[in-house]
Amino acid sequence: MEELDRTDKAVLNAILEDSRLSYRKIAKTAKVSVATVMHRIKALEEKGIIKKYTAALDYEKLGYEFNIMIQVRVSKGKLFMVESKIASNPNVHAVYDVTGSFDAIVVAKFRNRKAMDSFIKLIQTYDFVERTETMLILNELKEAPINIS
């Protein structure tokens, strides 16, 4: 685990709030110089703490009406292979290894019921997939990055 100081945390929290902020605005928020921000961001990128910069989209406004969570049970130690295959689908938002009666959880977004149905049935044909359980996500109450403390 990487230990971060107050400056690194302030820089990261500013970027989490708005990844388009200029170095000058981040420096003002973090109460450090622009040069410090530049060096800190470069170091955080090199360490892999900052993986990428992205935008938060409203998928519902873009027509993705069906959000689902699929629990997947995988046999014969083939979890990584199955997860990799599922993760390659462009509608898949996230894939997680989990504990419990299932081995993985998949979160995916679809424009229509037909596309969602096809994806669910496709997963069920994969070798080593023993069982799936699909849940339709009715409302998204919160989906956001957490501040670094």
* The CATH superfamily title of the largest domain: Lrp/AsnC effector binding domain/regulation of amino acid metabolism (RAM) domain
Order of helices and strands: HHHEHEEHE
Please summarize the sheet with the most strands.
Answer: 4 strands, antiparallel
Total strands: 4
| CATH fold type of the largest domain | Alpha-Beta Plaits
Give the neighbour order of strands across the main sheet: 2-3-1-4
State the share of residues found in helices, binned by percent: 25-40%
Distance between the termini: 14 Å
Question: β content, as a range?
Answer: 15-25%
In total, the number of domains comes to: 2
Which overall shape is indicated by the principal axes computed on the Cα atoms?
Answer: elongated
Mean pLDDT: 96
List segments where confidence is low: pLDDT < 50 over at least 5 consecutive residues: none
Number of helices: 5
